[in-house]
Amino acid sequence: MKSDTRYSNRRPSARSERPARDMRAQRTQKEQTVQLTVRGMARGAIRMEAEDGTIYTCAKENARGALFGDTVLAERIGRDRVIVAKVLTHAHENIMGVLRVHDGVRVIQPLERRLPAEIAVADLHAEAEDGEIVRTHVTRWEDEGGLCVSVEERIGSFEQATYALDALVMSMRLRTDFPEDVLKEADTCRPADLADDPTREDLRHLLSFTIDGRDAKDFDDSVSLEQLKNGHVRLGVHIADVGHYVRPGTALDREAFARGTSVYLPGRVLPMLPEQLCNGVCSLRPNEDKFTMTALMEIDDAGRVVDERIARTITCSKARLVYDDVNALFNGSEQQADAMAAVADTLRRMRVLAGKLRARRQAQGCIDFEIEEPGFVLDENGEKIRLPSGRYKTRKVDLVDWNNRENAEVWRRAWADLANEFLERNDCPERIDHRSYERQGIEQIPTVHVGVSATQMEKKGIVTERGELNRNIKAANRILRDIRRLVRGLKDWLAELKERKAALLEALAEARAQASEPTIPQLLARYMEQRGEERADWTSKGKLKGAVSDFNKVQAAMEFLRQKEISTVETLDRQLDGISENAVAIRDSMRKAERRIKDIDTLLSHIENYEKYKPVYREYAAIGWKKQKEKFAEAHRSELEAYRAAARYVKAHLPGTSYSRKELEAERKDLAAALPGKREELEAVQADVRTLRDVRHWLNQVLPPDQYRQTAEPGKKPSIVEGLKGREQRIRQEQEKQQQPPRTQKQQDMEL
């Protein structure tokens, strides 16, 4: 079929083409515009995230003052780069911070670290003081002429823990009270009754119990252990079924979703659910029927899980146990064994099972991250109690690995301490050291273990082989002690002779130096004369001005040298070398501390990503079907990549397989706190170095060429220009000596 040339060859008019072109332009402009949320800083640029998870970066100068959490409208200028066109919503209308006063200028330091370090304050409350926590309201944004806030409420001193916690809660916008409709809903929840849900499996016959801290109020899990007929055991882990009471779409569900989790603070808890639920209806309190979700695992003697299932159950905890009491039971306390007679046998069997499971996991190459989660003991003011050791008092109890071979050293040291305490109470001079002679640094042959039978035979006067060996060893040790005593006496005598010789030689050297070498004041006087000769063609006013300037500098330098007791060129050079080495050492230690702080920051960032995305990786690893696994991996690619990268970094940069976020943060805090003092010390040392360098530079002008010394800055290579100047000066002095007219024979005769 032929095409209709009447229409195919016809050129469209400009009027008909313009609307289509405008629509394409509008569509292109719309595609180039994207709505983003500010997530933080990344390598000096601002990192922003779209709704689909795409990450964009924006230069700080192109961000229109957008802050963390703000929603902006941006234009894409590249694949992943944007320019902010407009700030749509501000996330921080109110900012919590610490008031600071610098030279009369009042600013706040936000508690939110991702906000600017300092923000200007306008119309400040008249009674607010430096170091006080305040709540402010933003009166002017960055794109409106500079970020500025006004104080709305004073919280209290930042140094007091109670006010600091209140400020933290307010700054994080945490909910402290429950709405009335949520509390009414929680009051309607009643205790569990099997008649309410007959489909649940009744496990109330099992011996289950909870193990928590002594101050715990909510018990969300319990455990049980059954012995099966086939020789295996069935481990039951029972979790409180909160979902039975918190239904989707209810006020409780909405409030729990808004809170996200319970927040634990020192001496304070902000629960996710009302107390009626978390501490009452849902808490697995002893001798109360509770709705639970139970994981039942059948485990063989080798620690392999051969069968498992999850069921909706009703359980009844038989006892509420405490970590301290369980630990005392494992340590052999008869009192605790009697008090926990009903569950003692089950606890011991659980401990054996835990050892098998741990050994199997370690054989499979597992990674254990031992994170300390101590509960701090607070005083009446809400402050942590510091122990004499420098640490804070906690309720942490270690229930595992107490009997490992690696802990033999700990037990030996503890036994030695107890024995020495008993000996001291009984006024016995002997003391026990759990270390070997070699570790103590004692050059002595250890005796052998005699044994009970040989000891009894020796007491009866019967000579034994081991007893005779020990007597020979003791005699050899006595001879060695006498020899060492004589050697020490000879060494002390030789050392004393060397000290006397060194002191004599030093006195002779100083006498010779004082007799031959000019002092620094004499050399500086020559320098002043030389400077006066250099200004011979100057005007009278210039000569006077230059002479006064040089005199002031030299006088200040002489006062510094007098304080440091420096009078010769040798002592000056020695002092300059020592102070320069000290400056280099201080600077190296500061650089090392700064590098360590940077490494800790990087490590903490990876640890955060590891903990954040570990549940996503576990969910991915638990998927058994290939297509589902690939689909999940595609949907959560960024989280999985971040988790793997964090795991690799943590494994590569941490010793062993454990880490402690608090120890890293404490180390960083200590390093950062020490830097200002080191910086002040470096500045003081550098000031002394500058003065000594100036004096040495002046002396270079009048000293012979062989005593010339470059005065480079500590830690830096000598200046090539200064070296050339020194070489030029030496050549000029040698040429002047060569150009002196030779003495005549008459002059020589007269001298003779």
Strands, helices and their partners?
Layout: H1 5-8, H2 14-32, E1 33-42, E2 45-49, E3 55-58, E4 71-76, E5 82-89, E6 94-102, E7 105-110, E8 119-122, E9 132-140, E10 148-157, H3 161-171, H4 180-188, E11 201-202, E12 208-212, E13 221-227, E14 233-240, H5 251-259, E15 263-265, E16 268-270, H6 275-281, E17 289-299, E18 305-322, H7 323-330, H8 334-339, H9 341-363, H10 408-425, H11 437-440, H12 452-459, H13 465-516, H14 520-534, H15 540-564, H16 569-622, H17 626-635, H18 637-653, H19 661-700, H20 720-738, H21 745-751
Parallel strand pairs: 8-10, 11-18, 12-18
Antiparallel strand pairs: 1-2, 1-4, 2-3, 4-5, 6-7, 6-9, 7-8, 9-10, 13-14, 14-17, 15-16, 17-18
Helix pairs in contact: 14-15, 15-19, 16-18, 16-19
